[in-house]
Amino acid sequence: MAPGLRTAVLGAVVVALSLLGCVGCESGGAARGGEPAGGGPRFTPLDRLEAVHVVGGLPADVGTPSSVLAEIRYGHGRLIAYVQGDSCAIIATPGADAGADPIHLVAKRPGGGEGSSRLPAGPYSTASVAGGPRTWASLQCGENALVIEYAAGGEDAPQQVRGAVTVTRTGSPPATSRIIVGDPEVRRLIEERIGTG
Predict the structure, then answer these.
(1) pLDDT tens digits, residue range 89-112?
(2) Which residues have CB under 8 Å from 46's CB, separation 6+?
(3) Is the pTM of this model over 0.85?
(4) Are 165 and 72 in contact (CB under 8 A)?
(5) Cα separations (Å) of 49 from 4, 79, 136, 144, 169?
């Protein structure tokens, strides 16, 4: 084979192999299925999830812009999960028969090197508060997920769930809801981790 032809053939092979190496790539170097080129999962950040409209909106003392991501109704009470800037928050209003005060709990997303990575898609910062003897809430706030534990003070199981959210009941008294807000894949991974750990 002539040297010029050999160089042209080798060049064409290199180009073809380069293109084959990127089959299924999307813009930004991400491979098919939402996997970044580095191999780790890529999740939708909380502030990019679709917002949920809630009747009455958020209380006036909650600044804007805020985006409501989930609403869970319990009997006569409800819990709203939202994000605002670099923070996650919940507002829980127990039913009148729960004998508890409303809960407004806010946690900032952790900065570089801070927070817990016990759950997938972390790190997370943590906050908790009690609204009464049988009503309390805790939340773990990350960039890609919000994980909430909520005891509604004797309220029934959740009756209406809206948003990018999964709600399960834990068996330990008092009746507690585990609420995971995030895209479907991050919710699945967190449920699997909590279920085994």
Answers:
(1) 999 987 766 667 889 999 999 988
(2) 69, 83, 88, 142, 143, 144, 145, 146, 181, 182
(3) no
(4) yes
(5) 55, 18, 26, 9, 24
Amino acid type, 177: S
pLDDT tens digits along 49-77: 999 998 877 777 777 778 999 999 987 88
Cβ(90)–Cβ(68) below 8 Å: no
Neighbours of 52 (CB within 10 A): 17
Cα–Cα dist 179/165, whole Å: 7
Distance CA 24, CA 158 (A): 41
- Going 120 to 125 to 129 to 65, the CA torsion angle's sign is negative
Query: What is the three-class DSSP state of 117?
Result: coil
Q: What are phi and psi of 7, to 5 degrees?
A: -65, -40
Distance of CA 30 to the CA centre of its chain: 21
